[in-house]
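Here's what a typical entry looks like (Cyclic nucleotide-binding protein):
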Amino acid sequence: MKNNSTFKSAISDLEFPESEKIWGKSIHDPILGLIVKDYPSFCDTDCIGVQELNVYRQKYISNYLSAEMGALSDLEKNVITSLKEDKSIVSIVEDEEETRSFGQKIADQVADFGGSWTFIISFLAFIVVWIGSNVYILVNKGFDPYPFILLNLILSCIAALQAPVIMMSQNRQEEKDRNRAKKDYMINLKSELEIRMIHDKIDHLIMHQQQELIEIQKVQIEMMNDILNQVKK
């Protein structure tokens, strides 16, 4: 003979079969918190029906999924905001304009021209024309006969002036390399710090999700046990 006794729910005042009675003290804290939020007078000694408990179980799972989706949306917004507001070191390095003095510009131009094929070919042509004009046209009786003392003087003067100018350009290039190395170090350091921050955030997120998933699994197991008990009855 079936037991037809019933009880009255503490939150809805509806009557349910005695077999579906759930005491407040047997409800997990997250779900109990949802019930107390809607019904502040609910306590551990009160009872509700399985159907009502399942409603709050589904509400808990739904709230968790909504919170996770909201957290992801907030994370995307934060990333976009940080990209807009925070100017990275890379952009700062690229935006920096190099200031050069007039002498530095001249030294760079001389170094660029002195280390090019244009200078080599034009200088060889100048020497050939100089020697050819003095030897074949003026028959060593012109302004610079053999052994071309004037030409040697010109070459010596060019070499004496060109060497320090090129050294000036090389020194400035070394300074640029040092500054570039400092900037590379700053970029690498910032990248390392950001990677560490990302690892910490991921670890925190994983720990938080594991705890929430454990609670959800408990709720799902309880719901399956309730279903199995009803099927057995």
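The longest helix spans residues 149-232.

More examples are in the samples folder.
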